[in-house]
Design brief:
Elements: H1 4-17, E1 41-43, H2 53-57, E2 63-69, E3 76-84, H3 93-97, E4 103-105, E5 120-124, E6 132-133, H4 156-174, H5 176-180, H6 187-199, H7 201-213, H8 215-241
Antiparallel strand pairs: 1-4, 2-3, 3-5, 3-6
Helix pairs in contact: 4-7, 6-7, 6-8, 7-8
The structure holds iron/sulfur cluster (2 copies).
Amino acid sequence: MKGKGLLEGLWITLRHLFEREITIQYPEQMPYLQERFRGCLQFDYKKCIVCGLCTKACPNNVLSYESEPAPNSKKKILISYTIDLQYCMFCNLCVEACPTGTLYFNHNFELSEYQRDDIKIVYEIPRSAQAVISEPIDSPIEMVDSASEPVPQPDEAEAKKQKQINAMITALQKNPMKAVSKLVESEVQAQILADILQADEKKLVRMATMMIEDREKAGKVALAFVNKELKDRQQEGGAGNEPE
Ligand code: SF4
Ligand code: SF4
């Protein structure tokens, strides 16, 4: 039929005329973003325990930090933390690796800058708020937010917590299998974990602290210890089987 194509075209135009609008007038109108949208990577220094897991997880070396040993102890102090966002591919690996929820994405997607260096985010940690941590993969320690606030003294709750940690250390030393049995899924894993903790006092103390402060995290770290040990054993076995 003559003019059929024209009618079809008009019909399509008419149909779209009454449809819900899909495009928006950005930047006057801002788009709706899903809850899990990954905008700009953020760092909440109050939670950081300077364990370095994020830097190891990042495939593009986006993350780096400076730390220094705390005076008269084996602890570390976080000095600054840098996110070189120009190399970030928003893969979320660092967020997943961070045991304390320090890293997260906000919804800010307007990240363009005139200068390359301006896209780098550097968190200089205020001296009064610098995180002091005991070892890698440790538990978060409260920090003071502003320079004007006095550093809080250990209170009763802190003393009570320390008592619980000490009790847990004793339990792990005396009967490690029983103490760790609820952290892992099988008896074999419990045995491996017990051996690891018995052989390394620092790990034992860290594990006891985590078990009191954050049970879920303690479970994850315990599993990581066990998996690493199994991997090491496998590698040793593999190396032993290699022909001379
Ligand atoms: S999102 Fe991926 S690329 Fe970006 S900092 Fe984290 S791990 Fe690195
Ligand atoms: S606590 Fe999180 S952000 Fe801090 S060093 Fe460890 S993994 Fe990185």
